[in-house]
Amino acid sequence: MDGDTQRNRPHTARVYDYFLGGKDNYEVDRVAAAEILKWWPHIRTAARANRRFMHRSTRFLAESGIRQFLDIGAGIPTEPNLHQIAQQTAPDSRVVYVDNDPLVLAYARALMTGAEQGALEYIEGDVTEPAAILRALDRTGVFDMAEPVGVSMLAVLHFVEDGLDEILATLMGAMASGSYLVICAITTDFAPDQVKNAQEVYRVRKLPARSRTRAEITGWFAGLDLVEPGIVPPHRWRNAVTPALASYDAKVSCFCGVARKP
Q: What is the pLDDT confidence band of residue 253, given thresholds at 50, 70 and 90?
């Protein structure tokens, strides 16, 4: 994608960066974000809840012995990044980021540095092409694929309209026993009109978007062992839920889960 195209068409990673309060986005992304906010005024809350879930789930994986992390749909770097969380717990952690926006990769290479004991790499890839991601991952030489990998797919699968079962089967089929799958995705279960109208903003801009139910998201973990507390909103995953947090369900409108490959 050339520079003019980048500036004339919104990108999901840059819109998400805007919701997180970042500066690495264009006017076209901010216009799309403003339209989404009309329908889903609490989407910034959802973005922050997803980010905090990334922190807790990454720390859980590192404490569980995972030393290889694959982050697909990494997005614009926002500190603390996944590799920083992992390497705080295990400095020898090796992290590979994947995204399909050249701007994301340019910022990642410019801004990210990892612990000396570990490794950090970035590859261009699209979640809808899992075999290509695996080939690119193999070329990096960063991972030992005979060892477990933590595969994180956070706030990306709701931008895939079809073929998710095959995508996940391809990715997790290539991972060793003991690997983990970490997912957070938008749901229609709590506030369907809010989510569907926000989703339409993406679609009219020719960006794929499809939210799922809890049952559909649960199905993505078929054949894996779900970690307690199972499929829950991200602010409820291994987090002390106060009455205030309980009221976040409709604001966040996401489900998340972590599961281990037997």
A: very high
